[in-house]
Amino acid sequence: MSAADGAVRERLAARRSELAALVAERPEERLVELLRKVDSTLDAMTAGDWGICTVCHEPMTGERIARDPLVSVCLECLSVDERRSLERDLEAAARVQRALLPPATFAWDGWEMAFLWEPLGPVSGDHVDLVRPRTDGEPLHLLLGDVVGKGVAASLLQSHLHALFRALSQSELPMCELVARANRLFHEATAASSYATLVAARLHDDGRVELANAGHPRPLLADLRGVRPVEGAGLPLGLFAGAEYEAHELLLQPGEMLLLYTDGWTEASRPDGEELGIGRAAAALRRSRELSPAEVLAACREEMEGFLAGGRRADDVTLLALRRRG
């Protein structure tokens, strides 16, 4: 087994342990099914069958299994017509998905933000949304999420999450209840093995930020104390219908910044399995925090590219920088 394969196995084994603990506590169907898929993949790794198409019994491309370690059928097993149809569908899905994104830079009532959205392929499971207030004096809503998996299936769930969040953000629900209700609806409408992580934010014109985290990587806060992760996270959306969430409030002073991101950034890894990690991520923000949000994102991306040293990333990457203006 190569070093890269060993790194994949280690990550799967770690996630398997987390899943097993959840299943032992709450043996719901969707968790049990996901655990079976992970176990099947780990068994295939042990037997030396991982990465072998179950249809043609030939090795799949490293890029394909890097995108989704649980995949079991290669694209080559599709007919020519099926592949062409798939390409057309992917192109259409990519256009639709990009149309759902907000402007790449945005300013509103004392806030400025920018985001960077880079799918690994034509479509992405990462999601960014911004819901403007209906009337003056109401808060602005932001969402950054990551649906499990990659490709078309993840992008479809991403679109579903987009619609849910937009509908719920128009209500006056507290942030914790907004995310809890989104979780229930997502759980009811998705397959047993589907889930998503997200950070939802409500921005007020006095600098207050209400944050609710559903299993997502912790945002980084750059304030007078330095750069540090914002603590607090609940379960990912879609795992348990009755999951509860907490909202945390921050008060950002002029010039202070929040950086939201998906794990495709911090878990970008070299061939030997070493990951970029939260330490390098925080250092990149610390060095660039005086720049504009768009420039901060460029610096963070440059940090990742320098770390990879020409290597290819294996996941979608999304970053969002939010600054309180002076």
Structure report:
The chain is α+β, with helices and mostly antiparallel strands and 326 residues long. It has two domains: 3-77, Up-down Bundle (Four Helix Bundle (Hemerythrin (Met), subunit A)), CATH 1.20.120.910; 95-324, Phosphatase 2c, domain 1. Helix content is 41%, strand content 21%. It contains nine helices and eleven strands. The chain has helices spanning 3-25, 29-47, 62-67, 80-99, 151-169, 175-189, 263-266, 277-288, 293-308; strands at 105-108, 111-118, 126-131, 140-147, 196-203, 208-214, 220-223, 226-229, 247-251, 257-261, 317-324. The strands form two sheets. A six-stranded antiparallel sheet has the order 1-2-11-10-7-8. A five-stranded antiparallel sheet has the order 3-4-5-6-9, covered by helices on one side. Helix 8 crosses helix 9 (293-308). It is globular and about 60 Å long. The termini are far apart. The mean pLDDT is 87.
Secondary-structure blueprint of this entry?
Elements: H1 3-25, H2 29-47, H3 62-67, H4 80-99, E1 105-108, E2 111-118, E3 126-131, E4 140-147, H5 151-169, H6 175-189, E5 196-203, E6 208-214, E7 220-223, E8 226-229, E9 247-251, E10 257-261, H7 263-266, H8 277-288, H9 293-308, E11 317-324
Antiparallel strand pairs: 1-2, 2-11, 3-4, 4-5, 5-6, 6-9, 7-8, 7-10, 10-11
List keywords for this structure.
326 residues, alpha+beta, Four Helix Bundle (Hemerythrin (Met), subunit A), Phosphatase 2c, domain 1, 2 domains, six-stranded antiparallel beta sheet, five-stranded antiparallel beta sheet, 11 strands, 41% helix
Short structural description:
By secondary structure, this protein is an alpha+beta fold. It is built from 9 helices and 11 strands.
